[in-house]
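Structure request: Ferredoxin-NADP reductase, Geodermatophilus poikilotrophus.
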Amino acid sequence: MARAAVQRRLNWLRATVLENRPETARVHRLLFDVPGWSGHLPGQHVDVRLTAEDGYTAQRSYSLASAPEDPRLHLLVERLEGGEVSPYLTDELRSDDLLELRGPIGGYFVWSSAVDRDAGQAEGRRPVQLVAGGAGVAPFLAMLDHHRRTGGSTPVRLLYSARTSDDVLARDVLGPQTTITLTREAPAGWRGLTGRIDRRMLEAQTFAPTTRPRVFVCGPTSFVESTATTLVDLGHDPSWIRLERFGGSGDPS
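Returned structure:
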């Protein structure tokens, strides 16, 4: 008889703000200490809940941008004009403030070195291709930092689309396995790519379908759907592709 899956009950935890710092003009990095945190896998996310004095609550989901090996939890929050939650998180939160987190959540859009160790030798040699649009790079920062900290041998690449050089997030985590393309303007002397991620760029800058890569795509809905369609057209098996979409103004174009 197949073993029944057991879903762990998630409780709201009190998180203490350690730091709130601007990462770019629109995105802030929030660092938290969360007593009782059970650990997470790169690619998982958390729910954040705010409660007003009158009892009204608002809740949003954010990808974890920190590796499991980091004792602090990192979130990258893009400030959305007219938003109900993000302006408070970016503009009002201060060190030692408290809020509620619930997680980690999700098992579909995850990858770690343990995945390859458990998959067997043949599967463990399969490369991992990450494709990010704008703030969709957040879960990939957790994957890249985890890969670096654990000394993983799996080939990993990131193709990352940002509007301008000033919009590139987490430069300290992005390594030589990252290819950046700027879609709006490039500074003088820019040696990276320019333009939107399209068929030609995917074909030139990502692992070929013949290598059977695991592919993860994260970003605004239109970006994710267009990229996924192109990857399939290029010969990638749809079952190899994992997608994570979000709304808002994060369109990297």
